[in-house]
Amino acid sequence: MIGYRSSQPGSQRVPENLAGLIEAPPAGDFIAVVADPASTPYAAAFAEVAAPELAVFTLTVPGGYFADLYRSDHVPYWGAGLRALQLTDTAEYRNPHYHQPSDLLDTLDLEFAAAVAGAVAATAVQLAG
Questions:
Q1: Over the stretch 92-104, which tens digit does the pLDDT of each residue have?
Q2: Containing structural domain, residue 43
Q3: Four-CA torsion 69, 72, 77, 82, nearest 10 degrees
Q4: Angle formed at CA 51 by CA 116 and CA 129, multiple of 5 degrees
Q5: Rounded CA gap, 31 and 66, in Å?
Q6: Would 9 be classed as within a structural domain?
């Protein structure tokens, strides 16, 4: 999920099981980058490439299992000892349309999604360098 952005204060929530452990920005106008310790160089490269066009909130998972951080395609890579990132707009923690009948194309910020995709491509080129 990379297509929803809101600059409204209070539009970003934190999953209950992470409350008190992380402090996300109050407005859901960033792309979150979740890394395990081995993947932090990838996260830093993405943040560098994405700036200043995108606000980036990077979270390194210190160990242990946090269900909300282990719900995507990056998990099998981490399990295999490979480096990977999760890039997310945080879905249901900011998007009031997530999995609702109103979850339609016109509720998404396609410029934001395109900027994220462009930063991913530029990061991949830089890392392959």
A1: 999 999 999 999 9
A2: 16-128
A3: -50
A4: 80
A5: 19
A6: no
